[in-house]
What does this fold into?
Amino acid sequence: MVAFRAAGSGGGTVPNIASLNPTSGPAGTSVTIQGSNFGATQGTSTVKFNGTTAAPTSWGAASITVPVPAGATSGGVVVAVGGVVSNSVNFTVTTPPPSITSLNPTSGPVGTSVTISGSNFGATQGSSAVVFTGGGVGVVTSWSATSIVVTVPAVSNTGADAFTGPVVVNVGGVVSNGMTFTVTPSITSLNPTSGLIGTSVGIFGGGFGAPQGSSTVTFNGVTATPTGWFRDSITVPVPVGALTGNIVVTVGGIASNGVLFTLTPNISSLNPSSGPVGSSVTVTGTNFGGTQGTSTVTFNGTAATPSSWSTTSITVSVPNSLTTNTYGVVVTVGGFASNTLNFTVTPAITSVNPTSGPIGTPVTITGTNFGAVESLELRRVGATQASSCQFQTARRPATSSLLSVRHLRQTASYLQ
It folds into this structure.
C-alpha cells in the first residue's frame, strides 16, 4: 500500500527557501524569506533562526517577513510547514551597534559627570570606551547596556584631550553615532595669585582650546594679551589698568569660572621723602583701593594716620613717636604689602627763646629729634659764614631739646 496525502492538506509539498534578504543583521532585523510551498497562511507553521523560533509579521505561499528573534545566533534559517522542514539557508546574526540617544548634561568643564543614555552598550564595560572629540577617553564610573556615567577627561600624558564635538561609545570596535558635548573653559588654579601690573600669570585648567583664535583672558574685565596659549594652560601678563578681581577665560563665547587675582599695592613715590614728625606726606602709587577700610600705611611698622585715601594716592602724617632716622614706608591692602620706599625723619625747631639778645645771652631752642648736642651754629639769614656757639656744660640739658651743628644746617632757614 502506498500512502497518499491530498494537496493542500498541510505539507504534501516540501517548502523551499530560495533566498533571504538581508542575509545578516542584528536581532530585530526584518528578513524577507522568498521561496515556495509555504502555504497561504501560517497556521502552525514556523520559522527558526538556528533553532530559535521567530514570530513572522506576514506570511504568503512564496514570501514570509520575519524579524530576527532575540537570542538568535548565526546559522541556518528553516521554514517548517505541516511538520515538513525546508532546506536551510544561512543567516549571520550581527552584534547591534551601540546607539546614543541623549547626553545629560550636554555641556560642562573638564571633570563634569555626564550620563550617556542609549542602547547596545553591553552589560559591562570590558574593553569598551567613551571617546570625546580630541581623543580624550572618559573615566567611566558606571556602565550598563542602556546607560553610562563618565567624567569629561583632562589632557592626558599622550596629549589626548576633550573639547567641543561629538562623543561616541566604542563597543568591541563598533562605534556608535556621535552626540555633541560642549566642553566649557574651566580655571582650576593661578600661579601666582597676586602681583603687580606686568606680572606673568599662569592660568591652569581645561577647555581652553588651541590656538587662541578669538578666545580672550580678562582681569576684572580688562582684556589681557597672552604670551602662551595651550589647551590646558595660558601664560599672560597682568594688563595695564587691571584691578583686583576675577580672571576669566572666554572660549567660543562661553566664559569660564572666575578665579580671584589680587593686584598688590605699589608705591612709586613719596612727596616729600624727608621731614619732621607730624609733616604731611603724599604716597603715590597703584592698587591702594578706593577707600582705606582695613588698609594701613606704616613707617617701619609704626602705623600712620591717613587724612585722604584713593586708589593711586594717600596723604598721611609722619607719626609723632618716630625719632630722627630713615624709615621704610609700606602700604598694606587686604593683607598684601607693597614695596618699600624710604622716608627720613628730620629734626624740627618749634621755638627760640629769646629771639634776640647780646652775645652771651642764654638761648633755649625747643623742638624735636635734636639728638645729642655738642655745638650750635648761628647764621644770619643771607650770611655766608656762621658763628660757633659753645654751650656751658652746666647749662646743657640732658634731653634732646637743643640743636647740634649738623642738625642745624638741615633747618637753618628757621633761625631768626
Observations:
- The first helix runs from residue 405 to 410.
- The two ends are 163 Å apart (CA to CA).
